[in-house]
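debug: dumping io for the single-chain case to check the tokenizer round-trip. Nothing else runs in this session.
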Amino acid sequence: MPLSHPFDASDLEDGDTLHEECGVFGVSGVSNAANFVALGLHALQHRGQEAGGIVVHDPDQGFNSARRFGYVRDTFTDPALMDTLPGPIGIGHVRYSTAGSKGATAIRDVQPFFGEFSMGGAAIAHNGNITNAEALRRELIERGSIFQSSSDSECIIHLMARSLQRSIPDRMEDALRRVEGAFSVVAMTRTKLIGVRDPLGVRPLVLGKLEEGYVLASETCALDIVGAEFIREVEPGEMIVITPNGLESRRPFREARPRFCIFEHVYFSRPDSILGGRSVYETREAIGRELAKESPVEADLVCPVPDSGTPAAIGYSLESGIPYAMGIIRNQYMGRTFIEPTEQIRNMGVRLKLNVNRALIEGKRVILVDDSVVRGTTSRKIKEMILDAGAAEVHFRIASPPTAWPCFYGVDTPQREKLLAATMSEEEMREHLAVDSLKFISLDGLYRAVGEAKGRDPNQPQYCDACFSGEYPVEPSDQIEKGFTLKAAE
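debug: decoded output
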């Protein structure tokens, strides 16, 4: 059987990575909106490689949509397909499933979702996770709702359908007040483009200007690719409604102290994006500098685990004075495989994706800088590759604190008992990985790197750092109902 979606070497590592959540993009007031949406989704491909979808509206042809598995470059570049998506307004979504089913049978879970209401049609695309989705789903089904997908995001459409408000934006406000968790939503009607962030602003959403129209996107890199001017971030708890007459800002939620996901700075966002007025690349370089201050070691080379470890490795090298080198080379063409992933191929693991630059490594004491350690299987294999190439010593430096708790806000993480840091101390992890040394940046150090000079205030953390601290800013009620135990109060 051929693969129905792109194959990545990380798929072979038994969940040993934190998968991106999703990416959303919307545009209005332009001709051929679908082409702009496809470009925006291409820029956001790092946030979801499983599938993508586009919904548009044309005054003559009404709403049209297309949903496909695979990369944007392989699907939404077909002129015949794009010709079926006319109109001046459209939204899109790239997906890595964090809720709902996966695989070829799950095209019904691919967003955007669409619904017909008494006042007209509306489509929504959601980045995040609804932590009370199962309770809402049970309630809605008991009241007669018929779900078409297994996605938590579909709850929003059904809540909108049951609202008694008289406009789509009002119904969306009504629906989202019932929702718990993290959500950045881009939605559209026949004439309106809508963007909303949850009250804590856990997931990103930005606003841009393009010609006579506007753009909403998960990251600023998606504005750059379509030539849009960055205006500002959509603020936590804000709803923006864009019509042909202009832009309206609403505040539908009770005010709360923002808790943006700190891992967006570490890993998820593209390095050329801007988050909170800060360059992601510069923040990651600052993380590497902070890591070098906290955990120095004598060595000959600083090498990144590509590609996400590169800026932090550069920062570590600059701060420590140890030369930076590309000791590991990434296969840039590892999008699809021409070989069915048999057991023999699976055993190759990361060698399909990464190769050691033996001439640089041989006889050297090497510092490997990576963004995270999840299960540890990938780190062990990379270490073995480095030793096989003749390295004298291998030292791991990790540009995030130990990931000891699962994320319930839109990041696909293993169950807690499968996280290495949940069951082992740092020294036990070092022994398990069989490396000469292993050090993670401290949570205080990470906060300093993202601009909090005094580190993390335990009484008022500025970010959502639940995957490191176990302190969840929104109670994951569905998971607690299933038996998940929160961190005990200290």
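debug: round-trip ok. The chain has two domains: 9-258, 279-455.
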